[in-house]
């Protein structure tokens, strides 16, 4: 509100502008307060519980626990298994969905008969909700008695494999990859299509074959889109829960328990709220470390 | 280095014929410009020569060898695209190196070639730059450099200057023409800009709707357009065209009566059979003479005088709906609404018959180069 602005604009009333700012803050506050309450309160409560003895079935155990919840958790081999499974799930699904997605995106960029229908089909798994797709895979496709794969194997004289029992983590990974492949294809296909046709033709005239064009022209062009896909998928893959819950319930044993499922099991199957809270805090720390690296990588890639 | 020969080349998209039988011979070292309005098929023709489009029918010969079924990389061509089509993630050096690397040329040889080309194109300071850091003119030069390092038999240019501003375009035109003189490489250049065509070409090919309207040197096209389309297309401001009908044809020339009532003698080969038919009289703005004259005089009123400094374009109304443009070096005193007298020198008049085909002129101009 300095003098120069007043020469052209009608002089603003000083009292009115401050009260305007006040009422602005007032109007904003419901949204801000709601967001704060929704994120800060659970965070603080989790932190609080993680330092408490808090077991739902044993009310005699209460009081301050110090770091014992953390100590108990970090020395638990199940926790290490859950960490390993989380990493395996994230990396495995990323490799399958980004690798397969890139190849499919290049494939679906070609002209072929029925491309429109094929594109719809390749994208459709993304619209199936996680619980439903996990059930589909568990009962319809992979069931050792009446699943499609069992029938296929029997019809060529092989003994059906109980996939979820024998290879629990790999099977969960496959189901989640099936869900996320369409997303990668969708993003990467639009990226492939945005490649300048004259650039492709220039490469063609430069003598680049299909492999060289993919390696030197298409892949560098896709690098930004790939980092975006990796970032978004990582955020979701760290918290995969429904697929594990529905198919294996983390088992056999803890063979397919990831961090998210482990926290759930601690809190609501073993009723150890304190221990589960400690797991939650560790999950938050890990997610933030990953997010920091990812955001940096993406920011660097988007700048160039 | 190479000759290119097109024999009755045709291109059909689904059911529509885009190129309707083009035959053309391009000599070794010649700078040929394909020119025509948009949609005339000039770019398609170039892309067919490059191998980016299939040839539906006809033969394409490079150095006498039929290359219809040879892939684009193996035809020995290099192309400069309208958008330059530089690889954005590679620097200038890598852009030029890409084709050589794919051809498995040894590292030292590659380096030598690229450095030599960078020197001719004044790109040395930018070899480490990415295309995104360069100006339009510099990118253009990189695209040309990328073509040159491959040492191709034929250079193809697809409207390479249309993304540049007017001043830079003029400068690049000179650079391209100079470069062509030094490399003496066979070049095919597509443009819709007739000034680029006129200034750079050894031979201009005027295309319309997939057929060649005329092939010739720039001055041949200017002085002896074969038909109305070429007459209209070549020259700026465009040729004045007036409807007329033939009233007499004898040894003195052909007399026509214009729709404006004026009668004009034209120095074309007389054809008695055309007496009474309607024709089109054409005369270029720069050939209309100002002032009174005994031969083919006319009068009009100045609608608008565009003073360009060295030249003046006078838009003159002869009668309602019939305007002509007169280009003159003087005319400074003339302003709108001033009456003006002019004449059409018979030797500069063109006559086109009902089908738009030019009648042969009596005196063929001796053409320089």
Defining traits:
heterodimer, A: 304 residues, mainly alpha, MetI-like fold, 2 domains, globular, B: 369 residues, alpha+beta, Rossmann fold, OB fold (Dihydrolipoamide Acetyltransferase, E2P), 6-stranded mixed beta sheet, 23% helix, Mo/tungstate-bd_C_term_dom (chain B), transport (chain B), ATP-binding (chain B), NA-bd_OB-fold (chain B)
Name the biggest interface: A-B, 17 and 24 residues
Distance between the termini of chain B: 21 Å
Oligomeric category: heterodimer
The amount of beta strand of chain A, in percent, is under 5%
User: Helix count of chain A?
Assistant: 14
Q: What is the rounded Rg of chain A?
A: 26 Å
CATH class of the largest domain in chain A: Mainly Alpha
**Spatial sequence of strands, sheet with the most strands of chain B:** 6-7-8-3-9-10
What count of structural domains of chain B? 2
> Number of folding domains of chain A?
2
Task: Provide the residue-averaged pLDDT of chain B.
Answer: 87
Structure class of chain A: mainly alpha
User: Stretches of chain B where pLDDT falls below 50 for ≥5 residues?
Assistant: none
Uncertain segments of chain A of ≥5 residues (pLDDT<50)? Answer: 1-7
CATH architecture descriptor text of the largest domain in chain A: Orthogonal Bundle
Instruction: Give a quick account of the main beta sheet of chain A: strands, pairing sense, barrel closure.
Output: none
Secondary-structure element order of chain A, N to C: HHHHHHHHHHHHHH
Q: What structural category do the secondary elements of chain B indicate?
A: alpha+beta
Description:
The complex is a heterodimer of chains A (304) and B (369). In chain A, helix 3 packs across helix 14 (273-303), helix 4 runs parallel beside helix 9 (168-193) and helix 13 (259-268) packs antiparallel against helix 14. Chain A folds into two domains: 12-50; 68-303, MetI-like (MetI-like fold). With 304 residues, chain A is mainly alpha-helical. Chain A starts with a helix and ends with a helix. Chain A has helices spanning 3-8, 14-50, 68-74, 77-109, 115-123, 130-141, 148-155, 163-166, 168-193, 197-205, 210-237, 242-247, 259-268, 273-303. Chain B is an alpha+beta fold. Chain B folds into two domains: 4-232, 3-Layer(aba) Sandwich (Rossmann fold), CATH 3.40.50; 238-352, Nucleic acid-binding proteins (OB fold (Dihydrolipoamide Acetyltransferase, E2P)). In chain B, strand 17 and strand 18 form a beta hairpin. In chain B, helix 3 (107-120) crosses helix 4 (136-149). Chain B is elongated and about 75 Å long. The interface between A and B is medium-sized, with 17 and 24 residues.
